[in-house]
Amino acid sequence: MNNLKRKRKKTLSPRLRYPLRKSISIVGLMGSGKTTIGVRLARRLNLTFVDSDHEIEAAAGHTVKEIFEKFGEDDFRKGERRVINRLITQDKKIVLGTGGGAFMDEKTRGRLKTKSLVIWLKVDVDMLVERTSKRDTRPLLKTGNPRKILQKLAEDRYPIYKEAHITVESGQGPHDKVVNDIIWKLNKYLAIEKKKYQNRMARQRAKMNNVQKQEKNNGTASDTKDKG
Ligand code: S3P
């Protein structure tokens, strides 16, 4: 491969330039592509993709739809909290695709924010309507007009999804472009975090040096006093 081609390839498929110390979780409304993008992102980062809804279904022995019908949304949210907590606190780092409502639960949100790097896939409502119309497995969209429901969910949830560490607009373009955007933004985010960490360490070292200097000065002062 010549230099130009190599350079082009490099910019087209960026690599993660920093070690990942935490799992990655993806949040966003139903139909935002959390699984589609999550699977591809995991492949690029050499991690396993885990879907929280699938894990809840496996643990409960029921589909999400059945859990909503038989036990109600509250029970579903409790299970969701438990499952996400387990997945996000395990040693193995993963890319976690969460159900659209998971980040709305205060405890789950807190956990996700401290234990993982949270990425919000932001998609406009028209596209969500189109994408979600292809499957009827989403109980929340069965209670009325899906467009109105998604519109309302966007109004309620977008201000909270904004708390994610990284926001990526995911439109009509190719999936790989979204994955590239995520990796670029992750690099930028991790570079800033590294800088913050280095500054914190430098401040701590300076503080320690001052204390040591102070102690030394105090020691010299009392020595002089003793001698005097
Ligand atoms: C929900 C989204 C669904 C699923 C459940 C509730 C929500 O997951 O967890 O139907 O509250 O938005 P997807 O976002 O993967 O469709």
What percentage of residues falls in helices of 4 or more residues? 55-70%
- Mean pLDDT across every amino acid position: 92
Task: Evaluate the radius of gyration.
Answer: 24 Å
Q: Report the principal-axis shape.
A: elongated
Ligand identities: shikimate-3-phosphate
- Briefly note the structural class of the backbone: alpha/beta
What order do the SSEs take from the amino end to the carboxyl end, as H and E? HEHEHHHEHEHHEH
- Quaternary organization: single chain
Describe the main β-sheet briefly.
5 strands, parallel
* Count of helical stretches: 9
Q: What share of residues are in beta strands?
A: 5-15%
Q: What is the CA-CA span between the terminal residues?
A: 79 Å
Largest sheet: spatial strand order: 2-3-1-4-5
Low-confidence runs (pLDDT<50, min 5 residues)?
none
Number of strands: 5
Describe the 3D structure.
By secondary structure, the chain is of the alpha/beta class. It has nine helices and five strands. It has a five-stranded parallel beta sheet. Helix 3 crosses helix 5 (73-89). The longest helix has 53 residues, at 175-227. It is elongated, with a radius of gyration of 24 Å. The chain starts with a helix and ends with a helix. Shikimate-3-phosphate (S3P) is lined by residues 30, 34, 53, 64, 99-101, 138-140.
